[in-house]
Amino acid sequence: MNTYEEQALRQLGKWQADMQAHPSFTSKVSGNIQGRINRAIPEKVHEVITTSIRQMTRAVFYGAGFANPKPLKNASLRVREHRVQGRIRFYRNAATAEGALTGAGGILLGLADFPLWLALKMKLLFEISALYGFDVSDYRERLYMLHIFQLTFSNQQQRNKVYATLADWEGYLQSLPQDINAFDWRSFQQDYRDYIDIAKLIQLIPGIGAVAGAYVNHRLTEKLGDYAMNAYRLRLIPKQ
């Protein structure tokens, strides 16, 4: 194991500890607050989010509307991650610009941000997976991407559960049912909604929507990239 891989392994270890941490008192309080805010958000906003997530997850699973980049073969971890970091910057900047534009446009464009940003994040995951050498035409790899997405946009309690699945991915595949509907779509949608509702609600406020949209999209797209890197290190580094 070379110096770069040792550094990546240390970063992975810290990330693993964070993924397995017990829910804090603050996170539990935040969850209660989030529940009250959810009830106050207009139903139309909830419908847009839920519909967007349902359509996007189906598109990801069936490969509809997404290019399947070829897996990068015979590359070192350093080379892979250099290219991954470049794609994270690209999609982070694209999401930042998109969030600023839709945030400046009021409620209608603010609602349009949900499906647009969701598509950018999924495309990022497709590219990251391929750069780590995995075949995204395989539905099991697309399922892995959905778990990374769920891991990133979940509260700590749910994050513990999703991480446990990723940590034993090979074992999970052995028991994977043939019926794709066995994936917990409802939980997936609700986790994502709960995680971003507060931030995205602020984006709909006139006058500050552009700043809020840019900031939220920038920060959370970068977080998704970081989680994806560590999720794939989880599978690759022990094999180095």
From TrEMBL:
InterPro entries: EcsC. It comes from the Bacteria. This is EcsC family protein. It comes from Anseongella ginsenosidimutans. The lineage of its organism: Bacteria, Pseudomonadati, Bacteroidota, Sphingobacteriia, Sphingobacteriales.
